[in-house]
Every structure is written in structure tokens, then in C-alpha cells.
Design brief:
Layout (H helix, E strand, L loop, with lengths): L16 H12 L5 H20 L7 H5 L8 H16 L1 H26 L5 H20 L7 H22 L5
């Protein structure tokens, strides 16, 4: 008599780590509206980037002489780190993120102009956007059946390129 092998669910094998991350996010975030996740993640990213952008950066004399002191701030380092980390995961998707970051940078500069003309502080707007969108993401993600705080961290960090991967899959582009 032959012994029956127990039915085990095989986890798919992945060629790259990013595919495993996307698979895990797909397994956790199945019920929520991906469009809402995309909107809230974009606002959260914009808010965090705006907060980091507004941290005062030291004025170096040689940069002031070259009139290049306005182009370097802590946001520049944040952008470089984010793009580098995404580039290591999925190069094509990192270009999409870089495009989004460019658009967000434009809007942060526009907020600086509005603040200069007597409008609300960029730091306040960014803080409100970041806190409200992260809080909304938390409540929406809590409705998922397999949700853990580790998954929320992964959603905040890997989520932007995960959502871009869905766009790339829709238009049949490889990433």
C-alpha cells in the first residue's frame, strides 16, 4: 500500500526578490481598492518628502558663490536614496517613481512660493497630508484579513513600486 503525500501548498519560486515582495503584498492586500491605496500612498509619500524637504540645510560658502545653494537640501538626499533602493529592486519601476518624484518636487516648490506669498507653511501642509493619509491607509489596510504591522511597513516602503507594477502589467510592459 502506498502512502499518500500530504497536500501542501507550494509557494511559487521567484527569480528576483522584488517579485516575492509583490507576491506577498498581493496576498495581503486583496480586498482593498488599489486606486485608493495609490492615492493615499502618493499623498503620504508627498507629505514625507515635503517634511524632509523643509528641514533646514546648511549653507556652504562655495555653493553660495556658485549660486547653487538652492538646489541641494535634505530632500535631494531622500530622493537619491529612494531612487537608488528602488533601482536595485526594479530599474524600470524606479524610473516611474523618479517621474512621480519630479512631479511632487514641482508641487513642493509651488507650495514654497505660496508660503512666501503669505499662504500656509509647507511643513504644516506636508505634515497634515502625511499624517492623514498614513492614518487612512492604516484604517483601510486593517480591513484586510491577513494584515499585520509588518505588512503595513512593507506597503509604505515597497507599495509605490508595487502599485506601479500593476500599471506596467496592465499596459504589458516588463519591469
Amino acid at each position: 500500500m502506498k502512502k499518500k503525500k500530504p497536500n501542501t501548498v507550494k509557494k511559487p519560486e521567484f527569480a528576483r526578490p522584488v517579485e516575492q515582495y509583490f507576491y506577498e503584498l498581493d496576498q495581503v492586500f486583496t480586498q482593498g481598492n488599489k486606486g485608493l491605496y495609490a492615492l493615499l500612498l502618493a499623498f503620504a509619500f508627498f507629505g514625507v518628502m515635503g517634511i524632509i524637504w523643509m528641514i533646514p540645510f546648511p549653507q556652504f560658502e562655495f555653493m553660495v558663490k556658485m549660486n547653487a545653494h538652492t538646489f541641494l537640501n535634505w530632500g535631494s538626499f531622500f530622493i537619491a536614496i529612494v531612487v537608488y533602493l528602488y533601482l536595485r529592486l526594479a530599474p524600470t519601476l524606479s524610473y516611474a517613481i523618479l517621474l512621480c518624484i519630479g512631479v511632487m518636487s514641482f508641487f513642493i516648490v509651488q507650495l514654497e512660493y505660496i508660503e512666501r506669498d503669505g499662504g500656509p507653511a509647507v511643513l504644516l501642509v506636508s505634515l497634515l497630508l502625511a499624517l492623514s493619509s498614513i492614518t487612512a491607509l492604516w484604517f483601510i489596510a486593517n480591513k484586510e484579513s491577513k494584515f499585520t504591522p509588518k505588512d503595513f511597513k512593507r506597503l509604505l516602503t515597497i507599495g509605490p513600486i508595487w502599485l506601479w507594477s500593476k500599471v506596467f502589467e496592465k499596459v504589458k510592459l516588463r519591469y
